[in-house]
Amino acid sequence: xxxxxxxxxxxxxxxxxxxxxxxxxxxxxxxxxxxxxxxxxxxxxxxxxxxxxxxxxxxxxxxxxxxxxxxxxxxxxxxxxxxxxxxxxxxxxxxxxxxxxxxxxxxxxxxxxxx
Amino acid sequence: xxxxxxxxxxxxxxxxxxxxxxxxxxxxxxxxxxxxxxxxxxxxxxxxxxxxxxxxxxxxxxxxxxxxxxxxxxxxxxxxxxxxxxxxxxxxxxxxxxxxxxxxxxxxxxxxx
Lengths: 115, 113
Hints:
The complex is a heterodimer. Chain A has strands at about 5, 10-15, 20-25, 30-40, 40-50, 55, 65-70, 75-80, 90-95, 105, 110-115. By secondary structure, chain A is an all-beta fold. Chain B is built from no helices and 12 strands. Classes of the chains: A mainly beta, B mainly beta. The interface of A and B includes residues 4, 48, 50, 55 and 98 of A.
């Protein structure tokens, strides 16, 4: 089985641009998560979907960050407009759900640099 | 709300040293506890998990025991290798958090050959 796929792996954007990051979860997984990772803040949850329904939308990120699940096998994270403080690694993860099946599998991440 | 605290931000050891990374949690009931490892350029990957008091999780020589009394899940390895250099995250999934994980701040482990 393929793991979680994220594209692009690297992105450079100018301040004020719109960027879209993509994620394909593990086939059959019904939970999908977007995280932001920085050295200072560590791993921060941005969005959480269950069976394509938005379960949680990180409060601090609501204004410029929008995650969507277009179908059960594809998700996007849009940042609009970008700011230099958005420079970070964005990780996507998926899982089968709760209980022992609830282990999250992470993609390799997209490293974003905003100039 | 639920939280996870890792005491050490960075740990530097030599090969064959004994490793302990401390993890304490705050959550009601019996959360599921996890250790993840992240190598450079990759996403975190599961080392192991535990969901009951006194349950021991283990993988690749690493181990941790769920201790509800001290609300701890400390990571240990008897003899580290250079290839163990990575960032280690302790995490929990609470009873009422559905699928969401709460992560600690991470501990960067550096092993000198």
